[in-house]
Design a protein that fits this description.
Oligomer: single chain
Structural class: alpha+beta
Strand order of the largest sheet: 1-3-6-4-5
Bound molecules: alpha-D-galactopyranose
Order of helices and strands: HEEEEEHEHHHEEEHHHHEEHE
CATH class of the largest domain: Alpha Beta
Mean pLDDT: 95
Low-confidence stretches: 359-365
Number of domains: 2
Length: 365
C-alpha cells in the first residue's frame, strides 16, 4: 500500500475532504422535489491532488487498494475512478482547463452502509479541484455537479440530498433542504438528544433497480394527480384515489414531507422520535424499501432505554438505521440493541458515534 508521500514523491499540492451523510428525516422525498433533514457524518473522505506532469491521470486508493490510470482523453474503468473522472469531466464542461492529475483517495466511511460514501468522494474531489485550479464554484453548484457525476458517470440515478448534505451539512446540526429550490438552512438537532447510527451488516441489494422503480411510480402518481411532482400535492387525502401501489407510494412521500416540515419547525426530542418511527413504518409498509433485518434492528433500538425513535436511513434494502436517544444514553442504547440484534449471527455495528477503538483509522482525514 502506498502512502501519500510515496504516491506523490513528497507532499501533494492540495488536500480536501468531505463527509458522508446520515439522513434524520425525509427519505425518498428528494426526487419528488420535497424536503429532508440530513446531517454530516464524522467519517470523511480525503482527496489529495497534484498535477501529474505527464499525459495521464493516475488515481490510487489504499481503501480499495486499487490504481487507476488512463490517458488525458481516455476514461476510467467503472469503479471509484468513475466518480472522480465524472467530476473532472464536468468541471471541464464548465470551460475550466483541467491538466492530467495524480489523485489519492482515502476514506474511513463505510462503503455500502448507506452513509453516501459516493457523495463524499465526489464533493471532496470537486473541493480539491476548486482549490488546485482556483476557480469559483459555490457549494450548491458544487453539489449539483457532484450529483451529475454520479448520474452520468457512475450511472446511479440519485436525487440531490446526499451531495447537498456532503457539501453543506455539519455534524452538530441538521440541514433542511428544499430539493426543488435548493434553498437550505441549518436546523438545530432536537434538544437534549443525540444520534446513533448502526449498520445492519446487510449490504444493500436490489437497491438500484427498486430505486428506479420507486422513482417511476412516483412520477406516474404525480401525473395521475395532475401535479408536476408529489411535492405539489396539497390535499393529502387525494392520494387515496390512486390505484395500488401508487396510492401507498404517494402516501409515503406526501406524509414524509409533512413530517419533515413539522420537525424543521422545531419539535421536542420526543416528538422528533415519533416522527422517525412513523417514517420507518411508512418506508416499510407503504414505500416497501425496508427488509426484515432493518425492521428488527429498529425494533431492537426502540426497545433500548433512552431511545426516542428509530428508522432506516438512506435508500433502504440494507445499510444502516439511525436512532434518536436522550443525551448521554446513546452508547448504552446502541450496545443493548446490538446485543439483541446480533444474537442470530448478524454483523451489526455502531457507525456513529465513531467507536473510540476505530478512531485510529484516518484521524488525519
Ligand atoms: C439515496 C439517493 C438519495 C435519496 C435517498 C433516499 O441515498 O442517493 O438521492 O433519494 O436514497 O432518500
Amino acid at each position: 500500500m502506498l502512502t501519500t508521500d510515496t504516491f506523490f514523491g513528497g507532499a501533494p499540492e492540495v488536500n480536501a475532504s468531505a463527509p458522508g451523510r446520515v439522513n434524520l428525516l425525509g427519505e425518498h422525498t428528494d426526487y419528488n422535489d420535497g424536503f429532508m433533514l440530513p446531517a454530516a457524518t464524522p467519517q470523511r473522505t480525503l482527496v489529495a491532488m497534484s498535477r501529474s506532469g505527464d499525459d495521464h491521470f493516475h488515481f490510487y486508493s489504499p481503501t480499495f487498494d486499487a490504481t487507476v490510470t488512463f490517458a488525458r482523453d481516455g476514461s476510467a474503468p467503472q469503479g471509484y475512478g468513475s466518480y472522480i473522472e465524472g467530476c473532472i469531466r464536468l468541471v471541464q464542461a464548465e470551460g475550466i482547463e483541467v491538466p492530467p492529475l495524480r489523485i489519492y483517495v482515502e476514506t474511513n466511511l463505510p462503503v455500502g452502509s448507506g452513509l453516501s460514501s459516493s457523495a463524499a468522494l465526489e464533493v471532496a474531489t470537486l473541493r480539491a479541484l476548486r482549490s488546485l485550479l482556483g476557480f469559483e464554484l459555490d457549494d450548491v453548484r458544487l453539489a449539483q455537479i457532484a450529483q451529475r457525476a454520479e448520474i452520468e458517470y457512475a450511472h446511479v440515478n440519485c436525487g440531490i440530498m446526499d451531495q447537498m448534505a456532503s457539501s453543506l451539512a455539519d455534524q452538530e446540526t441538521m440541514l433542511f433542504i428544499d430539493a426543488r429550490s435548493l434553498e437550505h438552512r441549518l436546523v438545530p438537532l432536537p434538544p437534549d438528544a443525540e444520534v446513533i447510527v448502526i449498520d445492519s451488516g446487510v449490504a444493500r441489494k436490489l437497491a438500484a433497480s427498486k430505486y428506479n422503480e420507486r422513482r417511476a411510480e412516483c412520477e406516474e402518481a404525480a401525473r395521475k394527480l395532475g401535479v408536476p411532482a408529489l411535492r405539489d400535492v396539497t390535499d393529502p387525502g387525494s392520494v387515496e384515489s390512486l390505484p395500488s401501489p401508487l396510492r401507498e407510494r404517494a402516501r409515503h412521500v406526501v406524509q414524509e414531507n409533512l413530517r419533515v416540515l413539522e420537525a424543521a419547525g422545531g419539535v421536542s426530542a420526543e416528538r422528533f422520535g415519533e416522527l422517525m418511527d412513523a417514517s420507518h413504518f411508512s418506508l416499510r409498509d407503504d414505500y416497501e424499501v425496508s427488509i426484515p433485518e432493518l425492521d428488527e434492528l429498529c425494533a431492537a433500538l426502540r426497545a433500548a432505554p433512552g431511545v426516542l425513535g428509530a428508522r432506516l436511513t438512506g435508500a433502504g434494502f440494507g445499510g444502516a438505521c439511525v436512532a434518536l436517544c436522550r443525551a448521554g444514553q446513546a452508547q448504552e442504547a446502541a450496545a443493548i440493541a446490538l446485543a439483541a440484534y446480533n444474537k442470530h449471527g448478524r454483523q451489526g455495528r455502531i457507525l456513529v458515534p465513531v467507536p473510540t477503538d476505530r478512531k485510529d483509522n484516518n484521524e488525519s482525514v
